[in-house]
Write a structure and sequence with these properties.
Length: 252
């Protein structure tokens, strides 16, 4: 657990592909202006991290909301619910399909009306992308979350930071922000999808320009320079130009 701001904590966890390749996962804890807490994402924290979280949140009783923001991050939803069983549990439609036994709220996190109800948080879904595609290996779209008081962004997969694992991470530099490599397969097969995605990226770069830290799933926490958010989003967009051009050539 790392406290990144007065009212923001980030937890980094273990997730292995085929039980071999460690790619990591994350969960964030936000204390809202009301004094109550929101969990962003779900992870079955243990050991010292679990003890610290329970101490901060009154043994979990002060967590009243859990927001699951990536439709394919479903493995730890039960663990998060057990940590704060009285908290309202929000997820995407896919979360409800994958874990129907959990007491999900009727409103889903991808709905704009639902996103507007969360205190101190801004939420955004990439325009032009399918949140869930017919190919379960495509995890490029998610709901991005920004904590307004701290200017910290929590994002799963859509934006990534490449960082070496373990001790090498403290020696070798992180990459800049970059879009998920499967983004091309998540672009909607319609005219204008690329234009919508590009416009969304530019809009997010402007509206969230003061972002100071990005908590990226599977990789790292990235501390940004004062203009880093806008600059790195622009560079990330330039890096996928061939992918965007190819999609335009096929779909317009």
């Amino acid at each position: 657990m790392k406290q990144l701001a007065e009212n923001f904590w980030n937890f980094r966890g273990s997730f292995k592909i085929a039980r071999i390749v460690e790619v990591g996962t994350q969960m964030s804890l936000v204390r809202r202006n009301s004094g109550r807490f929101t969990l962003i994402d779900s992870y079955g924290v243990s050991g010292a991290d679990r003890e610290a979280l329970l101490e901060i949140t009154g043994n979990g009783a002060e967590i009243d909301t859990i927001i699951n923001v990536h439709p394919f991050h479903t493995l730890h939803c039960t663990a998060a619910h057990e940590l704060a069983p009285r908290a309202k549990l929000f997820g995407t439609r896919r979360h409800r399909e994958q874990a129907p036994e959990l007491p999900w709220e009727e409103e889903t996190i991808e709905d704009v009306a639902t996103q507007a109800t969360f205190e101190d948080l801004d939420l955004s879904i990439p325009a032009g992308l399918d949140l869930v595609t017919s190919d379960d290996s495509v995890h490029a779209a998610s709901v991005l979350v920004r904590h307004r008081p701290s200017s910290i962004v929590h994002v799963d997969d859509t934006l990534m930071v490449l960082a070496m694992p373990g001790s090498l991470g403290s020696v070798l530099p992180q990459s800049r922000l970059r879009f998920h490599p499967m983004l091309g397969k998540a672009l909607q097969h319609r005219h204008g999808a690329v234009d919508d995605f590009v416009a969304w990226t530019h809009d997010l770069a402007e509206k969230w320009a003061t972002t100071s830290i990005v908590c990226a799933a599977h990789s790292a926490v990235r501390h940004l320079s004062p203009d880093g958010w806008s600059d790195e989003l622009s560079r990330a967009l330039s890096a996928i130009q061939k992918t965007l051009d190819h999609h335009r050539a096929r779909h317009g």
